[in-house]
Amino acid sequence: MRPQTGRAAGSRPPLPGVIAAALAAVTLTLAGCDGDQPTNDPTATAEASAPRVVVGAGPTNQTETVAYAWSKALEDAGMTVEVREIEGGRAGYLKAVEDGEIDVFPDYSGDLYLELRGNQPQGAGTVEAQEPTQSPSSTTVPSDEANGSDENIVDTLADMLGSGQEGVTDGDVESGVDEQLPETVQILDAAPAENKRVLATTAATAARLEVTSIDDLAEHCGDLTFGAIKGEDQASVTAAAVADTYECTPGEVREFDSQADVVQALLEGQIDVAGVLSATPAIEDNSLEVLEDNQEALVPERVLPVASADLSDQAVSEINGISGQLDTEALVLLTRMTTSSTPYTPEEAADYWYGTVRP
């Protein structure tokens, strides 16, 4: 509260003084209303003229964090930015950018291609897939031999892209995505950051079997139990995906509710090999051995900006610039920050990381 000032109680100014004060107030009021001398707000004018970009959060918790990192770079370039969540998952974001509801969103190249071709695996990369359940439990998945199926996502993807049994590369998938998108939508430069599905085991198991790659693992597969997130049994991490390329058919495949549950089962010895996402902090935290994919059988997953063809050159340049600095190590850091026991919000994590790479 401001300190009270003024005359003593009961004291008042002479009448001429009152009239003079009133006339002065009227004069000031009229001057303020003079249309020939408007008062400009430089901040409001700048905001009104700044280019506006709506960034979609993308289909996963990781992509939302990436979206906020982009927003920081765009704001630093003088743009007005909104990060917006869209319902409907990956398909919803694709429709939103095509309809002009958003201008750009981050996604993963392999899953995006599979979505465009109607072969999207369920469960991968979602927030739920990262979190542990109260009581981890598994479900046994029938093998291909038992259910009579010899189809798998790697075969399908290789066929769709015109690749052979050696699998597909980042370039193959990005070209495939570009060909599937309508003319009103474009892809920008893929980030170095990768979050692909990989096969991992404990250091003890790797030493016992003397394996460093899926090729090495092949001769032992029949005696091993694989584990993966539910919905991933036909994706690029389990028997169906590696059997043809590596002739690796596990004795058993078990499904779990989350990636954390898969890792826990691996550490407890319930399974021998785990299908996990490569940017999970659990790999480093538990010194897991990621088996080399010698023949590129596992679907590439780069962080890929999907944008309107009308996105300005300046916005494209800013997004490409910050994406170029997002490597897998950074993605692991962002994932760790947003999934720890005391998590940061995606915006807080992005703000921290952007501060370390800001030009």
UniProtKB/TrEMBL annotation:
Q: Which PROSITE patterns match?
A: PROKAR_LIPOPROTEIN
Cite the InterPro entries for this sequence. ABC_Gly_betaine_transp_sub-bd
List compositional bias (Low complexity) regions by residue number.
132-143
Query: One GO MF term, please?
Result: transmembrane transporter activity
Task: Extract the signal peptide range.
Answer: 1-31
GO CC terms on record? ATP-binding cassette (ABC) transporter complex
Chain residue ranges for the region called Disordered: 122-150
Listed A to Z, the keywords are:
Signal
Q: What is this protein called?
A: ABC-type glycine betaine transport system substrate-binding domain-containing protein
Which species does this protein come from?
Answer: Kocuria soli
